[in-house]
Write a structure and sequence with these properties.
homotetramer, 259 residues, mainly alpha, Cytochrome p450-Terp, domain 2, three-stranded antiparallel β-sheet, 3 strands
């Protein structure tokens, strides 16, 4: 009746620790970087030099976005629970959902499902047109396009796509993403360049990372950034000031005037 | 009355994104690995080649420990909330507290406070004796020593200390940690070798990472491992089986027999 | 350019605290129960005696479901981070997502959107038929029906619907939910009685609680249950045993045999 | 070798659900309020009428404190992850740590450990003096005293202590807490009235709730308040405005001026 529990992530004996089939102390420590271990964890094998460069680049892009809602939430949480750094980081990660991490996931899904359905011989330009028009009809936003600050071009996209090309990892997913951006700009009559999450969704697809896991790339990378935000908060705390201002302003219309 | 809010983590304009003072697209992407960005985030500068090797090694050690309570919690959470991968990772990270992540933090604290109080001329052997006896008197466990599986020697410690030495990063913190291990083994009359968290606490101290942030090293690294566990759970789910067994067994003494 | 921040949840002065427009010390403490405050928080007014009975009943239903994935995750988290009871409860709540809390939300949404679109004169039997057939066609599960253990009838549903009727709160939402259950049983050719989450979704709709908040009823109620599970875990810990068993079994196929 | 897993929280069969030994549908729904179920969950028995009044009062006190760091964090999290209301509530609860929920816990611990060590015949005035002076010597803050807004008297304390007295639940814990407040005011030469968390810690002790669980009272109550804050945020969102202001101000010193 019961099903055997099985996992292949890691195991150990008295004298060694195996991670994804590799001896941690003998074969990984001192030889393999944190980013490459992340690749190993997700793919079950170490990356080639080219894959390493590109995979590290997309995760590096996701580490630090400054004073985001997620970073602010982490700092406010640390203020209330300084005993639990892990709780502050967890609170921050909880905001990497549909609006933020979901964007790379949605782009990857659009590309992966699009190319799977269209098949290996698909005409990418036609497929891009079809993707844009189906989004237009159902009034859905196309993931991975446009940016409120980097309106004309997202400098991260340019660099990430260049790195993918230099390393032989710019294939049909990247091409389709770029065509979707061009087609959308035409159809909507305004610049809709591929943004960083669009580039990441496309390149993760080239690396054969399933779209369901793509938001996880943002989650793992942002965990690093959030630890660093907590460290800055320890040294120069902002939470009390943020709290005081927001509480005062948001309740002032209810509070009796004091004169 | 109000205090100016200030952060130096990142900022951006229409055409560039700066992370810790570096141009992300120009100077970091394709040039700097994820582990080195973690170093940059925490230290405000990029690592030397030696620092990079050693810092990557200590974080790599923390990524994947197999089917820990934290990984099981993440999988159970994903089962209930498959819409929120970030929630499953957050749930897993919440278990990286005093018992797990806290151990590297406690070791680093013991070393950093010990050496600060004793001063630059301190006799390390005498300091180690004093640390062990004060823990013995107050019946506190000494962080960073002993392991239920790696009883005689922790293979990660051997490798991490060797890497620190090869890279010129084995100084007084590492020496003190080793002396504490030797002294404790003598005093308690059983083998208490420095374990992986003791080695990490010591080496993080060599890298001048404040002890308060050391549990964050475990948190950021484990986020990577937890994303990979969720991916395995997507492909070969264990949560339903774990739930069924535990629920059945834990309530069977209350349930009326059915014959 | 900036928008004024405004909230009406609570405010205070040196000598009083106002919660949702009521003086906490004068008008609420000793007079109003926890469940009624939950109603006040969500609805902006205190409940009538009838509303109180019914609202307390639906939230009470959601407090304690035994050794769920959520409860197990909370206990495993507490094991790793005993300094942070709040972290263990948060980990448990993170599993109250689409699969568990989402079910009451989905039922409420189906009823609220169904009745809004159909209008006040709608023929409920026809609407139920339409709801069931549209789910059948698109192969979606109908929320709020069927239960793996309470196969024939869910005793909570019987009681909750009886309480709603006795208290004048059984209107068109409850009727529609029941009709959907009958129609689905007919269409699918097997018993699909309204389960507890279906009843809660329907009654919450009678209380004019928006469907988007319905999963929040499960979240707030389960927080109570999770604190109690942590208390039991403090007294009779299960986490270490659960961990040991799962780790051993799930990695045994990889571990070299020891004879 | 293995230990039997056992829990007494709940169990069910095809036709009934038992919660802490009570038949949920028959004996609890419609008869027992949410607050009384919380008492049942923690104590294993239903409260008397007096206990119910007092227990509901202390939990009601903890539900809603306005725009706290915890509420702001929950709103910011919801902004990033609107698919996961549970994640937003969890993020908010993670801030109910040492600084907030910990305060009732610390007060209860001080009282429970103080009275246990001093024994049933203890002179409470002498014990209060000893508690205050030991805190003074070790420069530790005394939990449960003083308030930045309710400086002279905390209106919640007055009411909670009155309710405890009226209901026969004002014993040696409440007396000791009050004596500690008087003694501290004398010793420190300024008004240090018992605040709400001091009153809650004392009354929870009268109800024989272990101090380790007292922060859980805040966690369960605040979960209710946080769901209501998310509901307000759905209707009148503040998160985007808060984010925009904080990001702009905190990075303006780094950003090049635009003229």
């Amino acid at each position: 009746m019961t099903r055997k529990l099985k996992s292949d992530m890691a195991w150990s004996t008295a004298d060694r620790i195996m991670v994804r089939g590799h001896d941690l102390a003998e074969d990984l420590l001192g030889k393999v970087s944190l980013g490459d271990i992340a690749f190993l964890e997700l793919k079950g094998r170490l990356p080639s030099k080219q894959e390493s460069t590109v995979f590290n680049a997309i995760t590096v892009t996701l580490v630090e976005h400054g004073m985001t809602p997620s970073a602010i939430a982490a700092r406010l949480t640390y203020f209330g629970a300084p005993e639990s750094l892990q709780g502050a980081v967890a609170a921050g990660l909880l905001g990497i959902g549909d609006r933020f991490g979901g964007s790379a996931e949605d782009a990857a899904r659009m590309l992966q499902e699009g190319l799977t359905e269209a098949g290996p011989q698909a005409d990418l330009a036609a497929l891009a047109k079809q993707i844009v028009s189906s989004h237009q009809e159902s009034k859905r936003v196309i993931a991975g396009l446009g940016h409120p600050v980097h309106k004309r071009v997202d400098p991260r996209t340019v660099k990430l796509f260049a790195l993918a090309a230099e390393n032989g990892l710019s294939g049909r997913y990247v091409e389709l993403m770029q065509l979707v951006g061009q087609e959308a700009s035409r159809s909507f009559g305004r610049e809709l360049p591929v943004n960083a999450t669009g580039a990441i969704g496309a390149i993760a697809s080239e690396l054969e990372i399933p779209w369901r896991v793509c938001r996880g790339l943002a989650v793992m990378a942002r965990a690093i950034g959030l630890v660093a935000h907590i460290q800055e908060e320890m040294d120069e705390p902002l939470a009390a000031e943020i709290w005081a201002r927001i509480e005062e302003e948001s309740s002032s219309h209810n509070r009796p005037s004091t004169d």
